[in-house]
Amino acid sequence: MQPLPPNAPSRIGDYMLLAALGRGAMGSVYLARSRGGRPIAVKVARPELADNPEFRERFRREVEMARAVGGFWTATVVDADPDAERPWMATEYIAGLSLHQAVLDHGPLPERAVRRLAAGLAEALVAIHGAGLVHRDLKPSNVLLADDGPRVIDFGIARALEHSALTEAGIVFGTPGYLSPEQVVGQKITTQSDVFALGSVLVYAATAGGPFGEGATSALVYRVVHQEPDLSKVPPGLVPLIVPCLVRDPAHRPTPARLLELIGPPSAEPSWLPPRIRTVVEQRHTELGNLPGKPPTRVMVEEPPPKPPTLVTPVPAPVRIDPDRKEIRPTGVRFKTSRAVGASWAGANLMAALVTAAIANPDAAAPNPVRLAAFLGFLLFAFAAVRLLVGVASAPLTVDVGPDGITLSNGSESRRLPWYAISRVKVEAHHARPWLVVWLVSAAKTPESLGRGSFTTHKGGLRVYPISHERYRKRRDRDVVELRSALAWYGSTVYDPR
């Protein structure tokens, strides 16, 4: 908190201003007190926004939607005046500090605290989405740590900033590194975009860094779209919780309600915060009690937001969801081998084999060392072409990973391995030939093969599915990551991430 600036008003609506908390994209943020002594955060729009009639109308609609958000883990909107000389909105205060500042000052949170954080944020998203909103800017500075749990702030106002005078002036919104791939590329944004951001926030809480590293805005948004998240520093116990949130396809991410099921009941320990952070929170309570005027009751204090890098494209926040629209979600994740891709690679290798054979021909005028190298190349390309043609001749395989287990099909027959019959499952990544491998419980019967080497023994388990052997490396690596994510989500109790 800082003293009020000389040009600040003494009151906003019925609220007496006590201190300045900071400035953001919308305007200034003040600590205030109601007539009954309740401390509040009052956010006042910038003058250039106040002169924009379109902004006022959007602001009014967003305030109405934000007021509909309930739940334990959000900062409630208590008052607003879209028609004031400078539109303002008041929310309750939370005596705590932002996740961004807590990790910056005191380091990563322990695993137990990250799980409690995940549960609080998931429950907050359930409330936000239930009100027909998508937050669209969930990040460490928008999460406050209070002694009884986290709180999510700054939902319900950012859409009012879209196409406003600020946007026209070139100021953009959103934080690279915490935006979902669909936000970055301008595709449709749904509630699952918030789930991606939640996963990124949990990585920051557990490691003090985002899942896509640091650097220039352009580098960050490129990594979000084209690279896999770096979870090497995440505690192993948190990986099955975080990986499904960061799946690139929104349809394959869990819902916040499903996340709560995965997290399980909260710890019975009295305080969830590490001692050093808990001490800071207690100091914030004391500071509020020392403010002039009537001492407040137990309250909430909001941290001044840090200065994140701005995104190169406008990324506004909450989106209204049509409550009458019913989305149909897939029940699992499907992968399929391709005859067409295999045939293309076989043709390319066959052509290369013919060229090298012509060079290796004794009648050719090439020097002996060149002919020898060409002969070796011919053997290599011919072997690859034959192997690929054998795969093309085999029936394509489809593997489904879903709530009921793993199902393999060749078009005419299928084999299902329910989760209760699997004792362990993992992806064996070996150069260009990664496999999905399962270990069955002792009472389970080994299924018959469906071709392409399926259900053959391997290290005491069974090779089930060849993961994109016929595809190029980048696509194969992507499929491996997607399959790992599906296993971590649907088969979390038996999935081996090593």
TrEMBL record:
SUPFAM superfamilies (UniProt xref): Protein kinase-like (PK-like) (SSF56112)
Positions bound to ATP: K43
One Pfam assignment: Pkinase
Gene3D superfamilies per record: Phosphorylase Kinase, domain 1, Transferase(Phosphotransferase) domain 1
Superkingdom to which the source organism belongs: Bacteria
Alphabetical list of PROSITE patterns matching this protein: PROTEIN_KINASE_ATP, PROTEIN_KINASE_DOM, PROTEIN_KINASE_ST
Keywords noted in UniProt: ATP-binding, Kinase, Membrane, Nucleotide-binding, Transferase, Transmembrane, Transmembrane helix
Ranges in a coiled coil: none
Transmembrane regions listed in the UniProt entry: 12-32, 340-360, 372-390
Limits of the Protein kinase domain: 15-273
Gene Ontology molecular function: ATP binding; protein serine/threonine kinase activity
Biased composition (Pro residues): 306-317
Record region (Disordered): 304-323
Entry protein name: Protein kinase domain-containing protein
